[in-house]
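In response to a reviewer's request, we include the raw inputs and outputs for one of the modeled complexes. The two entities were modeled together in a single run.
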Amino acid sequence: KQEVTQIPAALSVPEGENLVLNCSFTDSAIYNLQWFRQDPGKGLTSLLLIQSSQREQTSGRLNASLDKSSGRSTLYIAASQPGDSATYLCAVTTDSWGKFQFGAGTQVVVTP
Amino acid sequence: ETGVTQSPTHLIKTRGQQVTLRCSSQSGHNTVSWYQQALGQGPQFIFQYYREEENGRGNFPPRFSGLQFPNYSSELNVNALELDDSALYLCASSWGRGTGRIYEQYFGPGTRLTVT
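The model returned the following structure tokens for the whole complex.
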């Protein structure tokens, strides 16, 4: 049974510092991995999608890496801003139908 | 193109009652997935509908049921509500091919259900 773990559960950094969020999964037979952002009480916003054949994806200040063999993904956010404060969730799918298995998330606070 | 919408935004029900949540998928999308997110946890997959047929189900009891309509909007029904059903219910829509591939999913804002 696939299990997704995110460490740390919470993180507080001063503005300008780089953020490093970790995600691990127990079954390496994933179809893809996706990082989401969730603001309090809101839905999910997709940040980056990494297909199983890829090793990383980049979008602006965000970079996500994927190491399938070790069951790990890392989301890097460069030069953090207070607007980056949110919960970040990673999710994996094991088939092409996109039935996500989510981690519990990392709650990030960026202080001015 | 409109995004994924869900109604109602908030709902308060009493234990034992029944509830229906609604999701309008993004224009052109034929696949809808439903998730339950308890406070402080990640979303849990409930079920998925593709072209009006159930296409997979998570570890939820039969009192969680769903429908998808010809316009691809969807309903989630929960019978005999329990206190633990209190959660944010999210739906996600996407376009799926019959060969078993869907493209990027888009999530709605969710419905906050409180069971007292």
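As requested, we also summarize the result in words. The mean pLDDT of chain B is 93. The radius of gyration of chain B is 14 Å.
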